[in-house]
Amino acid sequence: MTDSIQTMEPQLSTWQRFLKSHFWHSFKIDRVAQLSFMIFLIYAFLAVFASFIAPFDPYDASQIDIMNSEIPPSWEEGGDELFLLGTDAQGRDMLSTILHGTRVSLTIGLCAVALQALLGIVIGLTAGYIGGRVDSFLMRVADIQLSFSTLMVAIIVLAVFQATFGTELYQQLAMIMLILVIGIAEWPQYARTIRASVLAEKKKEYVDAARVMGFGRLRIMFRHILPNTLSPILVISTVQIANAIISEASLSFLGLGMPVSQPSLGSLISSGFEYIFSGAWWITVIPGVVLIVLVLVMNLLGDWMRDVLNPKLYKG
């Protein structure tokens, strides 16, 4: 009788199950999470369509006039309605450079975190599932990696690369180098978290059943264990995107990030810092505010996801 009743119940689609989930309910009642997510979507939309939204192309020299340099925002005295947020020292429209700079910063942050996650997941799964000497070796490598700060490793690697191969080649490969350095420097965060989850999951009955059925190690690790460890990965990724953006901005401020010809938010702040005391405050302050809001939004989303995905912490 029970079986017949169960078969009569309509099967919910994936979207319907999501709308009934604790995750969605928590999001609906949390105004901070909703506001943070909306602001992030706005950032993402502006970054993706920057080429269409920006009134000027900051990469096109024909659209840049040095005579328009250091024009204040349109609401300031001496401002020009043509340049809503003013211009920088090179005469580029600040709104256009900020839109393109946001795209560069988000691209570096997302790609660096994707690389971190890939390395960390593979290493963490391998260490936790195989165990023994493999686990000990990989975790000692992770401990050594964690003993060095990301910025210190990045500064050394990027400075050596720039000194060895020249500034011109570095500027051409700046984005790739930043993604590689930031991504490789932060993988232990994922590896240690995944390893802890795998140690708990591999003792459960469904893993034993998969072994009995003759499934190989890779299938058990990636098809069965990995999906049950995604919650901490989502939380870490949200926070790590903010950290990667900050790292890129810091390196750009030190002159080891994106070149002036391909501005990121960090390089915009760096290029305008020397003009802040001469009265051209908007060249540094406006990109700085945009960067702060972006990092704050990512951190708020990360904190909310951590609380929701960990029932022991959630109080909603």
Automatic annotation (TrEMBL):
Report the membrane topology from the UniProt record: Multi-pass membrane protein
Matching Pfam families, A to Z?
BPD_transp_1, OppC_N
Q: Which GO terms describe its biological process?
A: transmembrane transport
Q: Which InterPro entries match?
A: BP-dependent_transpt_permease, MetI-like, MetI-like_sf, OppC_N
Location within or outside the cell: Cell membrane
Q: Which domain of life is it from?
A: Bacteria
One GO cellular component assignment for this chain's record is:
plasma membrane
What's the protein name?
Answer: Peptide/nickel transport system permease protein
